[in-house]
Design goal:
Layout (H helix, E strand, L loop, with lengths): L15 E6 L10 H14 L4 E6 L19 H10 L2 E9 L2 E2 L1 H10 L18 E8 L4 H14 L9 E5 L16 H23 L8
Parallel strand pairs: 1-2, 1-3, 3-5, 5-6
Antiparallel strand pairs: 3-4
Protein name: NAD(P)H-dependent oxidoreductase
InterPro entries: Flavoprotein-like_sf, FMN_Rdtase-like_dom
């Protein structure tokens, strides 16, 4: 397994990561997605990246495509965490071959950022990095990652090389990722690669912004 090393370009101001756990199970229920998200955050921490995980279903995130749907909508406070983070980790279980409905709702709420730009006219999420983590006991991880990457890229995120990690258990069985006695070596090494590439890319984008749109 490769040993993580803090890239020289991370000597700049500390990067921040936000992991959104899109499990369907409210706290304090066990969550395999929480475990894989935590492992991604641990790998990023080894590179000097501060991290936080939020279980989205614990918050009243209303359906819609606006930054604030009003009437007690709790997305605005999660949105601020998204905007404050250099790296977004979108973690989701697999249900019926697809990402969870919570993950889909997160992507729908991020759609509002398409109309938000910085002072130079760049999309407000341009210059930020996104990665995806998926768990499940059925097929679907590759399709989920592809769908998530498309949506995240559409709203401005940059996807690093090998910017995903997943674990699929045996189909129609009851062993979850959190039930494993140890992390599979392939998952662990993939998580380290994801973290290394995400931190490297986020540091580069922090120092070298995308060009502003031309008038």
């Amino acid at each position: 397994m490769p040993r993580l090393a803090r890239p020289k370009n991370l000597e700049a101001p500390m990067l921040r990561a936000l992991a959104l756990n899109c499990t369907l199970s409210p706290s304090p229920a066990p969550s395999s997605t929480a475990l894989l998200n935590s492992q991604v955050l641990d790998a990023l921490s080894a590179l000097g990246v501060e991290g936080e995980q939020v279980r989205v279903v614990d918050h009243d995130v209303r359906p819609g495509v606006l930054a604030d749907m009003g009437d007690g909508d709790e997305w605005p406070k999660l949105r601020q965490k998204v905007l404050d983070a250099d790296i977004l980790v979108l973690g989701t279980p697999t249900w019926m071959g697809h990402m969870s409905s919570v993950a889909q709702r997160v992507l729908e709420r991020l759609d509002a950022e398409l109309s938000e730009t910085d002072d130079d006219g760049r999309p407000i999420l341009a210059g930020k990095v996104a990665v995806v983590a998926v768990v499940g006991n059925e097929d679907g991880a590759h399709a989920i990652i592809a769908d998530a990457f498309q949506g995240l890229n559409d709203v401005g995120y940059t996807i690093p090389a090998q910017g995903s990690v997943y674990w699929n258990g045996e189909a129609m069985q009851t062993v979850d990722y959190r039930d494993l006695s140890e992390t599979p070596e392939k998952v662990a090494s993939t998580t380290e690669t994801l973290a290394q590439n995400a931190a490297h890319l986020a540091a580069l984008l922090g120092e070298h912004a995308y060009p502003a749109p031309q008038d």
